[in-house]
Amino acid sequence: MGNSLRRRSRDAYRVHPNSTRTEETEDEGLDWIQVNGRRLNTLCGTKTLHPRALLSPPPPPGIRTVWIPPPPTPPSPTLSDCSYSSTEEKCYDPQDPALMFVDGEDELDFLCEGFRSRRALMSCGHAVTPTSLTNWCHRLLDEGESRFVCGQTGCNVEWSYEEVCKMALLTPEEKKLFERAMSSNAARANTRPCPGCESPVVRTDLFNLRVHCSVCSVNRSGSYDFCWQCLREWKGPDPRSDRCDNHGCRNQSLKTLKNCPYAEFESVGVSRCPSIRACPTCGILLQHDNTECKNVVCPRCKVEFCFVCLKLTDECLLTSEEFEPCFSRVAPRQTSIPVWRNS
């Protein structure tokens, strides 16, 4: 629980359940989230970047992508007009039994404004006041984020929107503004710039890395396709969901699954289980912390599954108990990433 105020670098991300097929799909630079057995806690990973939980639902599958010109619509909602200065400070009810109050510094008060409210613990264990939390989430949204992640260095815990509403004491007006900004930011995260003309392109086929830029195709008088993963002109056959034929194009998620060390689950009596798994529903990478039972709840899609055999918990428990080895034994290392179908 460090007190460093250094800001962390960020990337863009994404997310929801009912994955209907499993394919090798790209997600470069992916971090993983560490989870407890059957708990929703997302503990800090080994890097200082956000875990790449893709926040907006994926676009419907299609044949190829189309260029979408910059929209001539009014600018997306900004939070700059909202003032959360100390003169408008919000304070916790000291009698609220749902809050865990602590003595100590406000760990999100990066400007040292000294808010008067008592400090309460977030799910990640860091102490906040409602105003400092509001300011931090406001800052994340202004920077284009659509998720809320702890601002302490080394802590990549993602807070649910419900937790933010509760702990930041968001007013109805603040909730409306936050939700509009979250939606707008998530929508922008679904596009990538064409390497040929830098026009925003939307990928509609989740199982094909080859995407088409109509602008370059017109300007070059010939079809121009590029790789969604390495952002270079497409080389090789298609459709492909793992990589193109450009040198160095690779799926970092699959590399992590292939090279992660084995883990020992003493409480379950299981050894040589890969320490990192892709959630069988949404594909986010998770690392079990080797405590409690073998079942975990995915912090992204909220689906519970067995970390050992990769079956959904209800199915696994038909043939084994929570602290017993699985009847179907340890599932091998995954060689593909499930695609989350939001339906």
Task: Indicate the topology.
Elements: E1 21-23, E2 33-35, E3 101-102, E4 119-121, E5 127-128, H1 130-142, E6 148-149, E7 158-159, H2 161-167, H3 172-188, E8 191-193, E9 200-202, E10 210-212, H4 214-219, E11 225-227, H5 252-259, E12 262-265, E13 270-274, E14 276-278, E15 285-288, E16 295-297, E17 304-306, H6 313-316, E18 337-339
Summarize this entry quickly.
The chain is 16% helix and 16% strand. By secondary structure, it is of the alpha+beta class. The strands form eight sheets. It has a three-stranded mixed β-sheet, covered by helices on one side. Strands 3-4-5 form a three-stranded antiparallel β-sheet.
Describe the protein.
The chain has 343 residues and is an alpha+beta fold. It folds into two domains: 170 residues, no CATH class; 124 residues, Zinc/RING finger domain, C3HC4 (zinc finger) (Herpes Virus-1). 16% of the residues lie in helices and 16% in strands. The chain has a three-stranded mixed beta sheet, covered by helices on one side. A three-stranded antiparallel beta sheet has the order 3-4-5. The chain has a two-stranded antiparallel ribbon with strand order 1-18. A hairpin with a 6-residue loop joins strand 16 and strand 17. It is flat. It starts with 20 loop residues before the first strand and ends with a strand. The N terminus is likely disordered.
State the end-to-end distance: 38 Å
Strand tally is 18
SSE ordering: EEEEEHEEHHEEEHEHEEEEEEHE
Low-confidence runs: 1-30, 39-87
Oligomer: single chain
DSSP summary: helix tally: 6
Q: What is the approximate shape? A: flat
Global Rg: 22 Å
Q: Write out the strand line-up for the largest beta sheet, numbering strands in chain order.
A: 2-15-14
- Portion in helices: 10-25%
Domain RING-type: 104-330
InterPro entries: TRIAD_supradom (IPR044066)
Protein name: Ankyrin repeat and IBR domain-containing protein 1-like
Keywords: Metal-binding, Repeat, Transferase, Ubl conjugation pathway, Zinc, Zinc-finger
